DNA sequence: GCTATCGGATACATTCACGTATCGGATACG
DNA sequence: CGTATCCGATACGTGAATGTATCCGATAGC
């Protein structure tokens, strides 16, 4: 019997995302999640056994969605012309719900740094995402008539771009008015990308 | 009467740092901190009123120490000659207890993103730290016979360097073997710094 | 449509962390 | 020294979040 079940789980996960983003993992009670989802704690314990399990389930769903969306974007871009500036501009754009994800994934990252099992899980997902990013960035550079300078591999470059994105977001969310998301990317990525690539 | 008092507070703060780094803010009980420090909860409530207060006290102490250390480094460097590579190398170095600080400050940042009051506090501290960094970087660049290219201000550049540092650390701590701390800095900072500065 | 099973609600007991109030020992001061 | 005050320990009460056990309604198979 499984008609309601997936829906219930999905709603609980949606609610958990909201709750964790609003109050953090430690700061949300199981009942918070249930209230947001429109259930009681009975429903929760019928579907999950601990708050941690819910957290991990949320991460897995989120990871799958991010990857899926990313693959679609990569596929959709096709053969369009690009420049270094265009690549930088694309990296300076942010979804509306980026903030919510940022809060939850960063907290997950923290737990992963403390817990080897979670770290493996996170590393695996990140590797898949990076592979897509490497593919996408490689295509874009090729279309722009560029290739990495000697000593620069795309994998590292992607890691660098991710680091910049995450680090810049942290500052932007602490001081949204002083540093709107994308500011640092727009200002520095063209120079950085130009410096690590060459014609060819 | 104040002989034991500062010592007790210091020990509680040390213990809190350990505990928060190990289990996160939400995940540590006040008693955890007291046990690590070798006291009972009575000592805690005699010195602090809430766990949040302890957290802020810890943060303030850390901020003061970092600033102090930073100023010393700036003073010690004096007029020595530098290159872009030397600056990059300096930014690629990490304390042993950097990891502990990273865990605690990142969690604090998350709470600050959620709470405007904490965000102001954090922004204030960060601004002081950035001001020192701007001064130091300006001196180093001058000694290297460089100045920022038009359109690049040092303040933004420092923000960028901090973003890179934090973002890279996150990846390094999740996969220490795949990406030891400093890897990305060594690989990309020379190019980045070279691209955003010019002789003068 | 009847029934067996499943999913979620309700009610309860328990655990756990918290905060306070009080006590005993140590320290600075006269 | 003696004493007043401060500091940390101990013991207790409280509230909140948790987990479980049971119940009721809904759903799928016959």
Layout of helices and strands, plus pairs?
The structure is a homodimer of 200-residue chains.
Chain A (H helix, E strand, L loop, with lengths): L3 H24 L2 H8 L3 H7 L3 H27 L6 H8 L6 H17 L1 H28 L2 E3 L5 H21 L8 H14 E3 L1
Antiparallel strand pairs in A: 1-2
Helix pairs in contact in A: 1-2, 1-4, 1-6, 4-6, 4-7, 5-9, 6-7, 7-8
The structure holds a DNA duplex (30 and 30 nucleotides).
Question: Overview of this structure, please?
Answer:
2 copies of one chain form a homodimer. Helix content of chain A is 77%, strand content 3%. Chain A has 200 residues and is an all-alpha fold. Chain A folds into 2 domains: 1-49, Arc Repressor Mutant, subunit A (Orthogonal Bundle), CATH 1.10.10.60; 51-199, Tetracycline Repressor, domain 2. Chain A is elongated and about 60 Å long. Chain A starts with a helix and ends with a strand. In chain A, 32% of the residues are buried. The model of chain A has no long low-confidence stretch (mean pLDDT 94). Chains A and B meet through helix 1, helix 6, helix 7, helix 8 and helix 9 of A and helix 6, helix 7, helix 8 and helix 9 of B.
